[in-house]
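Table S7 (text form). Paired inputs.
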Amino acid sequence: MKREIKTTNDGSKTLFINELNENYHSHHGALQEAEHVFIKNGLNQLNDCEINILELGFGTGLNVLVTINEYLKTDKNHVIHYFSLEKYPINESEINDLAYFEHFDNPEFKNIYQKIHQAEWGKSTEIITGFNLKKIECDFFDLKDIDLPKINLVYFDCFGARVQPDLWEKPLFEMVSDKMSVNGLLTTYSSKGSVRRILQELNFKVEKKQGPPGKREMINAVKMEDERNGDD
């Protein structure tokens, strides 16, 4: 798929797929969207000492970078294991042109950004002390066959239902749910009624949250214990 670089309203860049007429991030602000959806309403809602994050999908690597940025702000002695799925990895030229590290004050972020993208696919890599990244090149529907620890936090960041409706239907959400721990949190920029109903059917407690700039609402969903089958 042909992609081009576009600048969003907060000055950060995103990729645009011509044939789908779809951006990787909100044109209102790629960085603002990532921080609002996945940090403010995701990572910052957890207090675990060890956090296992599952991301669908890796895309430009921006969500990894904002997660590391937030991780460095904490003085907690905790560890993050970050697992990210991606079917169509971006290329070196796109990585260099996106240059997300320029939006962070930390002088180490250029090196961190490069390390994220240079990390070998399929292998766990310690990006900084206490933060381990494993990028997995696969179709999202291969998730059921991937061996993961119980996931505490899911960044559900698939392309929109307009262009990839199958990613917002029950089969994929079932696979994701099966990988999650009880009380695990799923956060997504979507607020579709059909998505809320699917998650409720799968025994999630669903809450609508204020959306990022340019979007009225988004979803947080917590996986509840299923008393019928003793799910742990």
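Next pair, protein 2 of 2.
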Amino acid sequence: MKYEVIEEDGFNFIEAGEGEPLVLLHGLMGELSNWEPTIDHFKDRYRVLVPILPIYELPLLTLGVKSLAKYVHKFIKFKKLGQVVLVGNSLGGHVGLVVTAAHQESVKALVLTGSSGLYENAFGGSFPRRESYDYIREKVEFTFYDPAIATKELVDEVYKSVNERSRVIRILALAKSAIRHNMAKELSKITIPVSLIWGRQDKVTPPEVAEEFHQLLPNSELNWVDKCGHAPMMERPDVFIPYLNTFLDRILLK
């Protein structure tokens, strides 16, 4: 990762560029580097911020989607960002939805890609073979359309996380929190513009999830990324970035 992580007042984040603020939210097993092509492209026109979600720092008893959403809202206030565009992948999208539902006045627009919040088919309730490197590699490959995206470095990072007891307990707690916190009944209240950018071959949050989000979010658009799994900004930035660019131009430059 070529961007330096900044530490300020208990927050850890990447910041680059100037202009309208874009806040990028990573997923449960996501790395900041997943957003590198997005940061590279938008930093010339926008103020891009990527907070590290405190998945391994918050008290276990309070760890959940709602506590992460409170953290993100505090970060927005701490940085005095005013209204932001939230862009979230997987769990990050879910967190963005919770922030938006609670503080719609702070969010100008929302972008969801492979977001949880309705349904997800992730690791399931446990890691029955978490000591098996091959099993973890298969699970990471499952995330993408092209298994080659699951590099050894990426698999190593996930393998390390799920074999560290203190980490795996938190990962499972958050995964269960995301499954329990179904947002179907809250989505009609989110009236700001929402762009759904979805991998057509996403097996974690399948295409029907995107279609349901589109149906339930009153001011949403749905954009498909072909030959792509659960993380379009990482697997197909060549398609994800133009979609995001067009949406931002429409929302922010009108």
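The chain has a mean pLDDT of 91.
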